[in-house]
Design a protein that fits this description.
Layout lengths: L14 E5 L2 E5 L6 E2 L3 E11 L2 E7 L8 E2 L2 E3 L6 H13 L2 E13 L4 E13 L9 E7 L1 H4 L6 H12 L5 E3 L14 E3 L1
Parallel strand pairs: 4-9
Antiparallel strand pairs: 1-2, 2-3, 4-5, 4-7, 5-6, 5-10, 8-9, 11-12
């Protein structure tokens, strides 16, 4: 059971109770239930002239590996904004989301979900930020063969270059106006 012992709402000591068929830590004094630890990350496959934008990680996790630019979503930021921000921060390249092309689900101590986006290159010459990444550029499949490319990145690049026309596109005109404030994605 996770290493949380006190209620994040009122500070009371949590107890273990069965909720929804699972043992969960819950507060005996208020309605707080600790549902688990989750992380949502995003990665970008920005393709230009049949080359993919990659960065070399300067920090852990993955220090020294070439990966697609990416990071974590912010609490009050739509996912399409998160990935555009991450690409810009890490490389100074501007790109916009065209579709979702992959999803990795990795349950462990922190349940990690990673969403891969295909993005349209707009402008910019790749420059590493010098903090999170120490290398950046557009690379062909042939060039990547001699690089230390992370396994997940190989999978992402294969989808971006060979995956066909499928994927989830942003639904910019949902059937109800009340849904326009959300980031909605759907099949073509």
């Amino acid at each position: 059971m996770e290493n949380i012992n006190f209620c994040l709402t009122c500070g009371d000591k949590l107890e273990v109770r069965e909720i929804g068929g699972e043992n969960r830590k819950a507060c005996p004094s208020c309605s707080f239930v600790h549902w688990g630890n989750y992380s949502i990350g995003v990665g970008a496959c920005v393709v230009k002239d049949n080359k993919v934008l990659l960065v070399r990680r300067a920090q852990e996790p993955g220090k020294g590996y070439w990966t697609t630019p990416g990071g974590y979503i912010e609490q009050f930021e739509q996912i399409r904004g998160s990935i555009a921000r991450e690409v810009w921060e890490e490389t100074r390249v501007r790109a916009i989301v065209t579709k979702i092309i992959g999803l990795r689900d990795r349950p462990h101590a922190v349940h990690d979900v990673y969403i891969t986006f295909e993005m349209e290159y707009i402008d910019g010459v790749p420059r590493p930020d010098g903090v999170e990444v120490d290398g950046a550029g557009f690379f062909s499949l042939e060039e990547m063969e001699s690089m230390n490319v992370a396994d997940l990145t190989v999978w992402q690049v294969n989808i971006a270059l060979n995956g066909g026309d499928g994927g989830l596109e942003e639904d910019k005109k949902p059937i109800r106006e009340s849904l326009a404030k959300y980031g909605l994605y759907r099949t073509k």
